[in-house]
Amino acid sequence: MLNYRNTNIVFFVLLALLLLLSFFVKVNWWLFLLLFVARFIVIITGSTQIPLNFFLKAYCNNPLEKEKKVALTFDDGPHEMTLLVLDVLKKYNAKATFFCIGKNVEKHPEILKKVISEGHIVGNHSYDHSRLFDFYRKDRLVEEIAKTDALIEKISGKKTNLFRPPFGVTNPSIKRALEVTKHHVIGWNIRSLDGIIKNEKLVFNRIKKLISPGGIVLLHDTSLQSVNALEQLLQFIEENKYKVVSLEELLDIKAYED
Question: How many CB atoms lie within 10 A of CB 50?
């Protein structure tokens, strides 16, 4: 299995072989460079592709699910648009998981209360969702995650077990932090790209092509195109006999501590 540990083992074995070989024959310097570049590419790919489980185990779907069940997840709220998302979900009697940013919880506590009161699950998506998040050291990561946990617990009365790393990036520091906080890491296998694509039809069509039993859909509750794409998606799900289920049901995990 391709992961960080195995990558390092292969790298150091190959490096040792090249060094040993260099005692007997001339070894071109570019072979060493090629080895380092290959390791760099593999690690960057593993860091940015959460379904690879390169540094840690992340739940990105349920590959054993044969029934037409999917889970909906929303990142980066709570936000004013969250209210419109909730209206669409209620219209189709669908439940979702909202991965919330701590500073947005502080800004919109009433919206988070509404999310919870309507039966949706809440997860942790860091405190500030900084672009530097994956460069933080373990202690700061633990502090960020714990701070957001506390904000969610203050409103919900429950401590969430679910964490989604900003941008889906993982690395050794994040792994060590999560060994402390004990969260389940939640990824996705159906990425809508609604944070990049501004055309709701293109967002919907992308999801439609990727949807399959056991899938986890990533959307954002921060834009009108996402709200409109969600409406089209739920119509499609209804027409094609899919069922929206919670992450707890899809993955057989607990969203909150007992």
Answer: 25
pLDDT level of residue 2 (50, 70, 90 thresholds)? confident
Does residue 206 contact residue 234 with C-beta atoms inside 8 Å? no
**Same domain flag for 94 and 30:** no
Which of the residues are catalytic? Answer: 75, 220
Domain, as residue range, for 28: 4-48
**Of 147, 144, 189, 182, whose CA–CA distance to 166 is shortest?**
144
> Does one domain contain both 81 and 43?
no
Q: What is the mean pLDDT of residues 108-113?
A: 98
- Do 95 and 24 have their domain in common? no
CA distance 179 to 173: 10
User: Is residue 129 domain-shared with residue 12, that is, in the same domain?
Assistant: no
User: What's the confidence (pLDDT) of residue 258?
Assistant: 84
Residues 20 and 93 in one domain: no
CB 216 within 8 A of CB 121: no
Task: Give residue 176's pLDDT.
Answer: 98
CA–CA–CA angle 52, 123, 70 (5° rounding): 60
DSSP 3-state of 74: strand
* pLDDT tens digit sequence for 65-99: 999 999 999 999 999 999 999 999 999 999 999 99
